[in-house]
Amino acid sequence: MQLDFNLQSTTPKKKDAAPPKPAEPVVLGVSALTKKIRSLLEEGIGEVWVEGEISNLRRQSSGHLYFTLKDASSQIACVMFAGQTAQLRGMNFNDGAQIQVLGELTVYEPRGNYQLIVRRVQERGVGALQAKFEELKRRLAAEGLFDSARKRPLPKFPRRIAVVTSPTGAAIRDFLQVLHRRQRGIEVLVFPVRVQGRGAAAEIAEAVQILGNAAALGIELPDVIVVTRGGGSLEDLWEFNEEILARAIASSPIPVVSAVGHEIDFTISDFAADFRAPTPSAAAEILSSDSAELLEQLAHLSARLRRHVHARLDFLKIQLESFDRTALFLEPPRRLREYRQTLDRLADDLIAGADSSLQSHRFTLERQSRILAAHNPAAKIETHLRQLRAEQDQMHRAAQTRLRDHRQILAHHAAVLEALNPNAALARGYTMTMDSQGRILRSSADALASEFLETKFHDGTIRSRPEAVPRQA
Fold it and tell me: What is the pTM of this model?
């Protein structure tokens, strides 16, 4: 039940009070408002990761990049300053590319536009791939798959190289060009595989396994295996980050060189391989020797060996001729024995000569090492320290000698002074007589003229009066 009360006051109504005066509105200038918005954006949002498609890319002569990042329904202006653009090398950074950026949201005050100041850029999906890369790398490293103790040395002069790569890619062209320029005659077996796309890692792993078991298939084993491809993004190179390929490389009985991408690119296969080459061309340089340099060294050694052999033969010829002119020629058995010994010595000398020519490089190196050691600052410092210590010893000995000489001179002067000391004479029994004025008497006449006399002994003084004594005849 609803009750409707209509109450009317019997108190007379007061006159309504005047409404309050409205407060003065706060009026901001455009710049002040823009600064306020900028402060709110920078403090409230700050740095943020944003994903989208590049459009309206403009590259300024200053090196700065201006572009729009958009998705299906929105877009935002972005700026990337020149100092940050080095990270874009090797990346697809063009209109239409899907990327992820880390930037600071702010306002460009002169126009009042909000924009993103980009600090970092990565292709979409790279963050997840990088995390997957690091996780696999940690796990395989914990198993010891990357330990240096597992690494096998590369052959110094390989005769047969197997290259696992795309037969139409730039990597095999660069590899062969450098290899043939430096050293012809090395046999190259190209094992064609896909180096990109789903299933490529399994293909490459199978190729490495087949080459490792080539002997069982009746195929001559290669001396070394090169797994290679050209550069690309992290996604392009991802097949070389698969676990199946890493394990195939690590278990290969043949040394494996990984030459994937550019110098800045690192893959799991690089860590699993016995050796990492930064590029396909670098792999060819590592596995080959400069033919011109080898031929020059061989010619030099051959010439030295010929000179040594000819000189030795000439010397022995002279010896044999001198033997013919001796009495030994009349003793055939003895001469025959000496000839046999000479021939044995000649054979030994020829072998020693060959060894000497090969060891000369080592002797030269040792001589250069001694020269370097002689110019070593540490050796010079040690020499100067020895000289300094010798000079210090010499100065110390000179100072000791000088001090001893001065002590002797001082002792001499002390002895002289002691000899001239009146007290010393008194101690020996002499006396010294003075008149009443304290003057030393040197004659009897001076004594008679004085009122009294004082005679000084070594242990005291007596006073007396003078009295003349008749001179005896």
Answer: 0.44
